[in-house]
Amino acid sequence: MHLIALNLSDLLIPLFRGTFRCEKTDDTSTWEWACLAEDESWQSHGRLVGEATLYLPGSFGRPPRNPAEKISSGYKAWEFQYYVFGLLPGLLWSLQRPIYHGHFCKLVSGVRTALLLVIPTNERQQAHTLLLEFVREYELLYYQRRVDRLHFVRQSIHALVHLIPESKRAGPGSLHSQWTIENTIGNLTREIGSDQHPYANLAQRATRRVQVNTLQNMFPTVLAPPSDDSPRGCVALGDDYMLLRARDRTTRHLHDSEADALLLYLTAKGIPVQGWLPVVWKWARLRLPNGQIVRTAWKECERENRGKDVRRARMVKLRNGRFAEIQYFCRLTLPSDEHITLAMLSLFTKHDPSILKDTHGALVACRYLGETSRVVIDVKDIIGVVGMVPLPPRREEAEDPHTEALYANRHFVVEKLAIDNSWIGRQDEADQDDEEGDAGEGGAE
Fold this sequence. Notes:
The chain has 16 helices and 14 strands. By secondary structure, the protein is α+β, with helices and mostly antiparallel strands. A hairpin with a 5-residue loop joins strand 5 and strand 6 (293-294).
């Protein structure tokens, strides 16, 4: 927790801002890596970070605030983690020289792998190699083995050499990182009900929790929690997928592009569609096996049009590695009386392979295709909710006469960091407005 979220952040941000202590024998004008040294650049960068909040789903937890205004006002470790290892690879793309940006992305790729609960063997070796290269190149690019820059090399740099090997020896971070113990401390603190004797009350609550856990382990079937805690009106789809309300009041005729996409999907599955006029009842949400809730443009755009700040949860990662925006979900009854649950979506292009290679997998950039790319898929092809944040163009890209055709609507992907580690025992919470416009129990499928 401290190494990744706090110590590395406390090292990198002053480097990029050029606020590190500069000795008399050194000169900040030679610090080519300080892309945020100018106050105007720092303020503009801070605004981009603050605006990115709307593009990060609520399941990501607390989003990073504008660092230009809040970095000295109780900035949380979780905010630092998403700021540095989630947003910075994309937001520095247009500011940092490629040699420094590529070097920083080696750290990001290695750390993202280290945060996983289960690290595949091939990824472990790759992440370890990237971190070793980052440490070695850090001395060449920043420290440059100069005595007057010796304070650039902190213990957190050397600790990266041991990050991946220690995960093999001691296990994943979920077993020994401070996130786990601080979460437990927070849970127990919330249970304190006595102002006069808080420590005695805390000891009593902890004892009671241990007793309950012991009884549940001794009699798991008798004391198991109720199995049917599903939300009202939901539809269990199997494999831990669950369709959630709101749902349409009446049937809707589909636009040409959506009707064509639905007919194309059904035809490809061998389902007869001759003479059928595509009409559907829309559904608004889908709970995934990892606990995240996918929402839809159908409902989120309604709330955005009413002036509400919505943290978009409609951007998803598909099983084939593509990314898409969910328009709505629907259920169809086939001639065989079988029900199928589908998602209407708009695709992003495939990721830019050159950017992915140059950033060592840390920056996945795609262009949004909009209404020209309506596609229908089975809902079980959705594996996660992601953030799609606008990617600022580099100077040479902005000056390109074809910049609108080549770089418009380009976004970079922010996936939930350590989703396995931080999501254990949790589920995405529903908003109060999620069931607005619901048809009630009498609605059709």
